[in-house]
Amino acid sequence: MQLDRALDAYLRHVTIERGLADHTLSAYRRDLGGYVAWLGEQGIADTDAISAEIVAAFAAERAGAEPPPAASSLARLQSSVRGWHRFLAREGIAEADPSARLRPPKQPQRLPKALTIDQVEHLLGAPSAEDPIGIRDRALLELLYATGARVSEAVSLDVDDLAHGDVLRLRGKGSKERIVPVGSYARAAVDAYLTRVRPALAAKGHASARLFLGARGAPLSRQSAWLIIRAAAEGAKITAEVSPHTLRHSFATHLLQGGADVRVVQELLGHASVATTQIYTHVSVDTLRDVYATAHPRAR
Fold it and tell me: Example GO biological process term (predicted)?
């Protein structure tokens, strides 16, 4: 099959069958579009002409690029290539999977960066409790920390997702839904936003069902949510790096430090594998050292 047709077939498959988020689909399209363009430069126009050697040459060329790509970017690129070739082989479009022996680069294990509880409290208290936009921002921040939601999940929430009182329905990767509790602080912040701010914002837009709205009434974007988090960090005078995932990391870390079971945290975060969640257990090494030094008779 011609490369462009094969690529279109795969993108339709991941869009319809797997329900991937828009930014994930964009990454697939960008990675595989570059791969197909590279194949064309090698004089390859058909999927059956792609050999294991060709795939290995592509991976080696990308790994040796200047400046060197980040290991995470290279791993994602190779994952996109492997996924496409697996699909082509499974559907009978190609006779075999030439990427079967391709191994992703080993990535350094990075511990997620979490804020201290004091830092989180200062961050959550940074937006104004009187200004309408500040009330909205505080509701968003409280909800992120209370539920461990990804920023993309939070801005995708509809008002009806809060209809069950003290629990919230989140839609994660692959459109998988999970139910998470909402603490009293977050619920109070969201209620204040819903009653005092959102009606006025909604009147400026086009009757969106989204929970969080921008100043003009349109649904709040991921980029705007990131700016809200960064502004709150600056207002709280937090010098540590604060990313869109910081409150999610802090949520998981503080739960584990408080004695929560790692499998419960896995469920709350929406991780498919407990191995992904277990990285947070390493964050508490300092706590383990302190307990050991205090409790063991021969620790000092």
Answer: DNA transposition
Write out pLDDT tens, residues 220-256.
Answer: 999 999 999 999 999 999 988 888 888 999 999 899 8
Give me the CATH topology for the region 3-91. DNA polymerase; domain 1 (1.10.150)
Nearest CA to 157 out of 247, 219, 228, 243 is that of: 219
CATH architecture of 117-273+280-295: Orthogonal Bundle (1.10)
Q: What pTM, to 2 d.p., does this model score?
A: 0.64
